[in-house]
Amino acid sequence: MAEQCGALMADLILGQVLTFTGDPFSQGLSAARHISDGAVLVVDGKIAALGTATALRAAHPTAKVTDYGRALISAGFIDAHVHYPQTAIIASWGKRLIDWLNAYTFPEEMRFADPAYARSVADRYCGLTLAHGTTSFCTYATIHPASVDAIFEAAQTRGQRIWAGKTCMDRNAPEGLRDTAQSAYDDSQRLLEKWHGVDRLSYVITPRFSPTSTPEQLAAMGALWAEHPDCLMQTHLSEQTDEIAWVKSLFPAARDYLDTYEAFGLLGKGGLYGHAIHLTEREKARLAEVDASLIHCPTSNTFIGSGLFDMGGLKAAGHRIGLATDTGGASSFSMLRTMAAAYEVAQLRGQALHPAQLWWLATVGSARALHADAKIGNI
């Protein structure tokens, strides 16, 4: 029988344990602690202690023991930027971002008007994430409220911690994928009230990106975020150069791409800005000033030729950075493959990322980006 700590049950998990005492980018590689003969004490489903197997076995002689031998025990991976509705079109051939959206993304997302289809993809996606060691993720849904319900229900059944939101678009998208400023606000508000804070589920306010939202809709999303500052807000920023030119044509008075969010109350500490490759110096300074989160999506950035994220420069400047697969614009559901791609991208910019830094990005780094590092991301 498992040892009882008071009325609680204690279990010991044995193996090689990887934990972090700090950020290996700023505090050195010694911030990654590897316990080769390690153990984790779990009491009533929560981690209570870690150390050597010898020490913890001696301290808890009647605890139930599960010995994984030389296997690695780590916090689960955290995927900080995904599009679960694009599961069926992952790694589709394409030219550039806008072509890819029109040829693959929008036609597939229109299928989510059918709640049964949304549920089937949500179930499949959650199963794929767990199969790849991903226990938490932050996802865009579609404009359909049922697509949000579907992913929350699928994650709740599996005990996963996720963030999700209705994707809001009221222009530059097919008729079946457009809402309005008012309906986007109303739908998001209802979904937020229904799901935010339930079990391990969190709502995230989700304007897709500036080109697919009118100023009126961006303002509505900014107002909703101001009313619910405990929620995160996710969007895209400076992924491709032609996208930036498109934004400039749509918002001629804006100082830059980031200004199209800042002007409408969509820049802040809880903001998650996917890609962030081609940033101006002003954008970098403002993002750092408000302590926003930048989400690195290396496999999608290379797959559709977006550019090379400046990990070294942005980390040195103190930015919060998370790591993400960006499925389905990417080529893999695996955070291990995503770490490899981040290494390759950094090499092309003249920086060799150490495995400890890459693992930190996929766990603690993504947890910090999602403001959840007090709960997940580390042992």
Core attributes:
globular, 379 residues, alpha/beta, disordered N terminus, nine-stranded parallel β-sheet
Global structural class: alpha/beta
**Largest sheet composition:** 9 strands, parallel
Tally of DSSP β-strands: 14
Portion of residues within helices = 25-40%
SS field, number of helical segments: 14
Rg: 21 Å
Note the gap between the termini: 25 Å
Could you walk me through the main structural features you see in this protein, from its secondary elements to its overall organization?
By secondary structure, the protein is an alpha/beta fold. Helix content is 39%, strand content 24%. Strands 6, 7, 8, 9, 10, 11, 12, 13 and 14 form a nine-stranded parallel sheet that branches. Helix 7 (215-227) links the parallel strand 10 (201-207) and strand 11 (232-237). It starts with a strand and ends in a 10-residue tail after the last helix. Residues 1-7 have low confidence and may be disordered.
Summarize the structure.
The protein is of the alpha/beta class and 379 residues long.
Summarize the topology:
Elements: E1 3-5, E2 8-20, H1 24-27, E3 32-43, E4 46-52, H2 53-59, E5 64-73, E6 77-83, H3 97-110, H4 115-131, E7 134-140, H5 145-158, E8 161-165, E9 167-168, H6 181-195, E10 201-207, H7 215-227, E11 232-237, H8 241-250, H9 259-262, E12 271-275, H10 281-290, E13 293-296, H11 298-303, H12 311-316, E14 320-323, H13 335-348, H14 355-369
Parallel strand pairs: 2-5, 6-7, 7-8, 8-10, 9-10, 10-11, 11-12, 12-13, 13-14
Antiparallel strand pairs: 1-2, 2-3, 3-4
Helix pairs in contact: 4-5, 5-6, 6-7, 13-14
